[in-house]
Specification:
two-stranded antiparallel sheet; 357 residues; single chain; Rhopdopsin 7-helix transmembrane proteins; mainly alpha; 3-stranded mixed beta sheet
Length: 357
Amino acid sequence: MEGFNSAFAVPRSVCSESCPLGFRKAAIQGQPICCYECIPCLQDEITNQTDSINCVRCLWDQWPNHEKSSCLPKPFEFLSYEDVLGATLAASSLISSIVPLLILRLFIKHRNTPIVKASNYSLSCLLLMSLCFCFFCSLGFIGYPEHNKCLLRQVTFGLVFTLCVACILAKTIMVVLVFMATKPGSSLRKWTTFRVSYMIIFICCLLQFILCVTRLSIAPPFAQYNINIRPEIIVVDCNEGSPFAFWTMLGYLFLLASISFIVAFLARRLPDSFNEAQYITFSMLAFLSVWISYIPASLSAQGKYTVAMEIFAILASSWALVICMFFPKCFFILFRPEMNSKENIMRKSKVTILYLQ
């Protein structure tokens, strides 16, 4: 009986199979109406029934499933603490912030020694505290980009790094002033006080503060849902408002660092046993190299990796300053204490004596 049915099967009256979910029917030119082809829906469209004539586009915050039979909510992407990359950067920031505090404790303990005095003790302490804040400010870039976080994270970054670079600029200028003040008949000795260095820092930070306030007043940053980077996900990020204002802030930091580098480079051969100009030259060279490399890297990165690149630049540039500015001094303090004596300094240099007084 089964053989009989198979031999005399009823012929099909259609020339096309039914279109499954995720496909739509399209007529074949020159063929009967019952003949059609099945065309897959576009990447953001679905069909929830067979033999559908049209595909339905998903909403902006939804994306088709694998079969393109239903729309599912798009996942949100941002650099979170639960993410491996975010957790690694957060742990690096916290651990790195401890290093300037340890160096600060070492400097406070040896504050009466020549190396610490020659490195301008008060400015060194302020610089170490600002470096600690530099490591901490990178945490503001991790987590869900809320409105207040978008407003404050770049401002905090700009002000903290301006304070840091301004301290180094003040150190550089003080090195040159102290050397010039040792010449006979020089009237620059009155400019070697701590008030001058703090005035330099105040002016530099004030200018950056004005730039930040102007930026927040004209084009403040805001949180946004970005679906243009990858259409299947929603990238939650901070729109920086005016790109010109953002790059002006970075440009101001670049200007301060460049001035410090040029002055320190010209003063690197001054006859001083603990001439900080050499350390400043290397630190500013490393600082500028990191941020120059950040520009093309940030433009090529997308989504959460753009934020990760800025955090990496913050950590790398901060570490460059810590290593170049303080590691050599810590080495002499801890492992070469015989060089950290006033007698040794006075035999070799007259410039450092002004710091020791």
